[in-house]
Amino acid sequence: RSRGPRASVSAEAYGSWNTMKAFTPPAYPKDPEQIAQLKQILGNSFMFSSLEKKDMDAVIGAMQERVFEAGSRIIAEGDDGEHLYVIEEGSPVCKKKIDGADKIVKTCGPGDVFGELALLYKCPRAATVEAVDKCKAWELDSGTFNYIVKDAASKKHQQRDSFLQNVDLLKSIDQYERAQICDALKCDRYAKDQMVVTQGADGDRFYIVESGSLKAIKDGKEVMDYNVGDYFGELALLKSQARACSVQVTGEEATLLWMDRKAFNKLLGPLEDVLRRKGAEYEAYVK
Prior knowledge:
By secondary structure, this protein is of the alpha+beta class. It has 2 domains: about 30-165, Jelly Rolls (Sandwich), CATH 2.60.120; about 185-285, Jelly Rolls, CATH 2.60.120. Helices cover about 30% and strands about 30% of the residues. The protein has helices at about 30-45, 55-60, 115-120, 140-165, 175-185, 235-240, 260-265, 270-285; strands at about 65-70, 75, 85-90, 95-100, 100-105, 115, 130, 135-140, 185-190, 195, 205-210, 215-220, 220-225, 230, 245-250, 255-260. Strand 12 and strand 13 form a beta hairpin. Helix 1 (about 30-45) packs across helix 2, helix 2 (about 55-60) packs across helix 4 (about 140-165) and helix 4 crosses helix 5.
């Protein structure tokens, strides 16, 4: 279902007027350790995790290792995109032009993917990425991406993006920032009455409810309900403290999106003030 204009988003259509050409992905040699590393990285990526084994093997084979020295510009905001990148080593920074000045909006690290938006939506680069130290990255060409990954990834990405646009916490961020969160989120399903978190336990995940309903329980007393679009778990991460409440599934099933502490600190940093304010309201409510 459409939720407002998406003029910048386009998808390839194929028919008698536009026939998909036969395509053979390139294949670059890799040692077993590199293949295992890429399988682990891509298996944790929102875009690549659902690929069948033969498609995953083809994508890994098509990736070419690139090295960027400190100070190198890897991609530039506004340019056309021909590749996406998976970081193996280094900490490149993403910059966007805000009020006429280049401002750092994210620092990447090993395992992060960037450059995918231009390939998914056939749009100009959404940000500039520069190496601040020596950076090793795996480069995937647009041909392989379009032929193997794009259709499934584009559909999944648009569905997840549409959902995140309606999460109150994330309404103030732009498409690029949402895309980063999209790729960092993992998905787990829980059965009726199953405990998601337990009061007093260490907390290392932040959750958003994608479907279903849950309740928060403090000292044996129900104190709050969670429904689609609600989130929880931020207090334990913001304050490095134990879980203040247990959270239990009340519907037949619940689907939760989650990110770990590292991704939470990296991607939701700009929303920390909102999270702390909401957290203070929550603490006052459950006392």
